């Protein structure tokens, strides 16, 4: 039992959720390593939603509201940490949920589907028939025909650079959540949210509710004004400034 007063309470709780998901087979071994890399960046960022991240979250919410067919991609880490919030976000944007795994096994797909259904998902895509995006015969290019394959906007938390590039090249707006501002995914995505998924998804839900009554023109302006590489530069600057003042 971790005491709430422990200075690393939130981090320790996330570790418990991650190891528990690994024990159940929801998470591949490499999912735990990916979490560790994320933790390190979260530490550098001060374990809170930074100002640049809040800006990216607002742009992402606007892009999701503008989408005709938005899809949220779910992997093992996402299912381990925020299954309920993913379902809530999908409902808020009228979007679909699709399982997409780097280390795909039928067993893991079924386990993640089960977790999402238990958390209220009505439909989970990516469980059976998959197509290759732009006919690229790579496991990183597979997508469900009714989901990511035909989506205009995709939210792909904790994605890998190759897949992000394939999705971008196919003309989709790609939103990612990745604590590493220097990852290929962060640099290649249309909108990168440099924040922990446990904070970013609830913040996205809030931003969607805040922006949902805006006109299409107003939403488009928010998306147009967002510059991804500039946002990443702001995040890196903030990490650097925290050397002098960790309170920043
Ligand atoms: P790329 O190909 O984009 O350079 P990579 O090889 O670093 O990526 P992976 O190890 O597949 O990518 O991805 C894991 C990424 O997810 C890491 O960049 C890590 O910082 C990030 N990450 C891990 N846990 C979280 C979390 N809870 N919230 C947000 N991001 C996270």
UniProtKB/TrEMBL annotation:
EC number: 6.3.2.36
Pathway: Cofactor biosynthesis; coenzyme A biosynthesis
Record's keyword terms, sorted: ATP-binding, Coenzyme A biosynthesis, Ligase, Nucleotide-binding
Pfam families per UniProt: PPS_PS
Residues bound to ATP: 15, 37, 178-180, 184-185, 196-197
GO function terms (MF aspect): acid-amino acid ligase activity; ATP binding
Gene3D superfamilies xrefs: Phosphopantoate/pantothenate synthetase (3.40.50.12640)
Coiled-coil ranges per UniProt: none
Subunit structure, as described in the record: Homodimer.
Similarity comment: Belongs to the archaeal phosphopantothenate synthetase family.
Database matches in HAMAP family: PPS (MF_02224)
Name under which the protein is recorded: 4-phosphopantoate--beta-alanine ligase
Lineage: Archaea, Methanobacteriati, Methanobacteriota, Methanomada group, Methanobacteria
């Amino acid at each position: 039992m971790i005491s709430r007063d422990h200075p690393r309470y939130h981090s320790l709780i996330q570790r418990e959720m991650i190891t528990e998901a690994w024990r159940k087979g929801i998470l591949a071994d490499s999912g735990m390593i990916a979490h560790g890399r994320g933790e390190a960046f979260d530490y550098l960022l001060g374990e809170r939603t930074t100002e640049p991240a809040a800006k990216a979250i607002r742009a992402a919410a606007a892009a999701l509201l503008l989408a005709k067919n938005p899809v949220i991609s779910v992997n093992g880490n996402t299912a381990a940490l925020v299954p309920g919030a993913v379902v809530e976000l999908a409902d808020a944007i009228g979007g679909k949920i699709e399982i997409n795994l780097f280390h795909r096994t039928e067993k893991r797909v079924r386990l993640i589907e089960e977790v999402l259904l238990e958390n209220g998902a009505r439909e989970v895509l990516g469980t059976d028939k998959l197509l290759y995006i732009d006919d690229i015969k790579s496991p990183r290019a597979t997508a469900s025909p009714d989901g990511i394959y035909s989506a205009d906007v995709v939210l792909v938390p904790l994605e890998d650079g190759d897949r992000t590039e394939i999705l971008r090249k196919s003309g989709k707006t790609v939103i990612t959540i990745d604590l590493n501002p220097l990852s290929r995914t962060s640099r290649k995505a249309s909108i990168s949210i440099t924040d922990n998924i446990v904070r970013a998804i609830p913040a996205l839900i809030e931003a969607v509710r805040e922006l949902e009554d805006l006109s299409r023109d107003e939403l488009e302006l928010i998306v147009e004004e967002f510059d991804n590489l500039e946002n990443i530069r702001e995040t890196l600057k903030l990490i650097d400034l925290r050397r002098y003042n960790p309170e920043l």
